[in-house]
Structure formats: structure tokens, C-alpha cells
Specification:
Mean pLDDT: 84
Helix content: under 10%
Number of strands: 16
Structural class: mainly beta
Low-confidence stretches: 216-220
Strand order of the largest sheet: 4-5-8-7-6-10
Radius of gyration: 26 Å
Strand content: 35-45%
Number of helices: 3
Largest sheet: 6 strands, antiparallel, barrel
Shape: elongated
Amino acid sequence: MNWQFWIDVGGTFTDCIGVDPNGDKHFTKVLSSGQILGSAKPDADGYFLSKELIGFTDQFFRNLELRSNNESWRIIDSKPDGRFKLQHDESITDSLTQFTLHNFTVESTLPAPIFAIRKTLNLPLIQPLPNLDVRLGTTRGTNALLTRTGARVAFVTTKGHGDLLRIGFQNRPDIFAIDIKKPEPLFETSIEIEERILHDGTVEKALNPDAAPPTTSSNQTTRHRLSRHLLDAFV
């Protein structure tokens, strides 16, 4: 049995629930930016010590970038007890260890869900991920739908059904309303494809990819995200 993950990416935080092969649950919260924020003070042997980095497996942060006070360094060594060592301009930063690093940022370079999974598994970034079962949701997507600030979307469907989402269910909250105002659909344009699959799975007209219309906007400069829904294509 693989590890199973349920992840919600929010505007600020990403929440992750992991279930290990024994059925035990593990809860992790990370910043949706994929960053780690903290501070560090000098320690012995050229290391810094940060309580925010305690508990991660050996070399978890190795080769990641740390930023502080408009400067950046590469982490060349990190320990489970929160100690780490930096390198800058190809040299060990021994001189830095006399200063406290206030408000540093560790850039994970990973999407927040992947970083949360690695944190849960305590798996360094230099090691590959095992096979996993992941369910991913995002309130970012919900916010984009509500504010209409998401990507430009083209609705791809079977020929003759391009206006299906505009027609909708014909709901009438006010049955006697004369001036009916319907919300604008989430897609910007529709693309109809010459193909047809019957309800029993019979292919009445095979799809011809070469005959599909282009998926650019009217000015041929901006590409769309595609939402593909072909009639009975699930059978």
C-alpha cells in the first residue's frame, strides 16, 4: 500500500494529511509559497542554528537557497538539530557565523504540495519521491472562480454543443422576471470538434485531430487553457 495524501492549497498556507501504509495519519502545514521563514544564530564549527529547521532529516535543505538582508547563500550542509552551513561566492562563509541571520527565507523551489509531501515523509530534496496516491484541492482555484481572475479558458466539446454551458439548466429564481441576467460563463470561447460517441460507447464519428480548430484567441497571440468535454467520451 502506498502513502496516501490529501492536500489543500490555500492562499497563504497549504494543509496536508498523509496516511502511511499502517493507516496512521500525519498532519503537515507549510506556506503556499513553498518557503520557510525563520531566524538563525551563530553556532560552533561554522554552523548556524535555527529552531525553524529542527526535525528535518539530515541534508533535507542541502543545495537550497537561503536569503537574508538582500543577500543569498547556498545551504551546503543541514542537520536534524537545526544546524546548517552556508556557502557564498564559492567559499565557506566562516565570517558570517559571527552574525545573527534575522528573518531569513529558505527557497524550496518546489510547489507547496510537493514540499509538504517531502516534509511529511522527511525525504531530502536530493532523493526521488516513492509511488504515492495524492488527492489535491485548492481554495486558490475557488478564489479564481469567484473573482474571475483565472487563466483564459476555451471550452472544447462535440460539434453542436458549444453553447451547452451558456444554456445551462434554464433556472428561473424569479419566474416572472422579464429582464433575465445570466452570469457570464467561466470559459471565454468554445471550440466544437467533429466527433461523436454514442451512449453505449459506439464510435459513430471518429475524432480527427488534424481537423480541430486552433486554440488561440481571436488575435492569435494568447493561448487558452483547455476544458475538454466530449459527449459520452467517458464510456
